[in-house]
Amino acid sequence: MSDFLPHPFWSFSLELYAGEGVAEACLDLQERRGCDVNILLFCCWLGASGRTTLTADRLRAILKASDAWQAEIVRPLRAVRRMLKDRPWPETELGAMPETVDAVRRRVADAELAAEHAEQIKLASLHSPPADRDRPVDKRLRAAVGNLGVYAVCLGVVPDAKDRAAVVALMKGTFPVLTVDEITRVVG
Length: 188
Prior knowledge:
By secondary structure, the protein is an all-alpha fold. The protein has 8 helices and no strands.
């Protein structure tokens, strides 16, 4: 969408989310664990770009700032989009034709995406220490996994095998130069 402000975090997120298995991993963590997909992507971006690992206190402050936006804007838009998609809307209800309902659903989806973009810009403004792309890839991987671990702590989640599989999928997309074995050793 051309009206979105360019930002390295947004560009990273679009590319990562389009990667094999990444969207499914993010949505699984969102549904099962209540994760904010933007926070998952933020944790990956911070690590991938060579930034330091988040502390639990720093992430809690970031979550506090983003939680209201998620609760009041993003999740209600998502709920409306899903209702328009999942509920049958026969022509007799409000005279709505299926193609009209689909057009409304697409506009709500666009609004949801715009709200996600706004959240990402806010997240980056709340915590953006200098990047260090020269930092060795294994240290960047550990930082990204560490950030996701800190997020799990903040959510009160004890990761299980499904969570670890989702993190491996995120890391494969974030660090395509690494093998699955290298990633799995770090994820645990």
